[in-house]
Amino acid sequence: MRSVAVLVGSLRRESLNRKLAESVGKLAGDRLSFRFVEIGDLPLYNDDLWQQPPEAVLRMKREVEAADAVLFVTPEYNRSFTPAIKNAIDWGTRPWGQNSWKGKPAAVMGATPGVIGAAVAQNALKSILTVCDTALMGQPEVYFTYKPELFDETGAIANETTRDFLNGWIDRFAAWIDRIAADPH
């Protein structure tokens, strides 16, 4: 089973994006193994810190590099993705020649209580991820309007239509990971 490093851009305890990512992870359990990567403990990027790299940075890079793919899950803050994700991306691309994202199959999703489901944030994030040399899956996209009634008391997707849509996305992401693994160039 392919492993997916999951980076959630919202650091709050009751993050809607974390809930979405955990729910998708439950759905994907028979196809993909989600491994959540902590990014809240990363210091702000500072190139001087490479002289004695923080353990949190080295841990994040190891976890990303060990995974078969990466999933970025972001809310929308002021029409963009979160500083926490940008900071993780910056650490992951350094030091020069040690880009942890290089060639990784990647996907983006996000949730908001609003109707556009973090669409603007996701599009901004996608432009950065291509520069970081990820193999970014373009379709299908998940612009998720978060509604509590879509989930059951365990956090699983309760709505059949939503579950079917997300299962289709999971199938496509799993196939994307296999495709990139088969021909990484």
Task: Summarize, please.
This protein is of the alpha/beta class. Helices cover 38% and strands 17% of the residues.
Describe this entry's structure for a reader.
- The longest helix has 23 residues, at 160-182.
- By secondary structure, the protein is an alpha/beta fold.
- It has a single domain (2-182), classed as Rossmann fold (3-Layer(aba) Sandwich), CATH 3.40.50.360.
- β4 (105-112), α4 and β5 form a beta-alpha-beta unit.
- It is built from 5 helices and 6 strands; from the N terminus they run βαβαβαβαββα.
- Helices cover 38% and strands 17% of the residues.
CATH class: Alpha Beta
Number of domains: 1
Proportion of β residues?
A: 15-25%
| CATH-level-4 superfamily name | Flavodoxin domain
Largest sheet: 6 strands, parallel
How are the SSEs placed, and which strands pair?
Layout: E1 2-8, H1 16-28, E2 32-36, H2 55-66, E3 69-73, H3 83-92, E4 105-112, H4 119-131, E5 135-136, E6 142-145, H5 160-182
Parallel strand pairs: 1-2, 1-3, 3-4, 4-5, 4-6
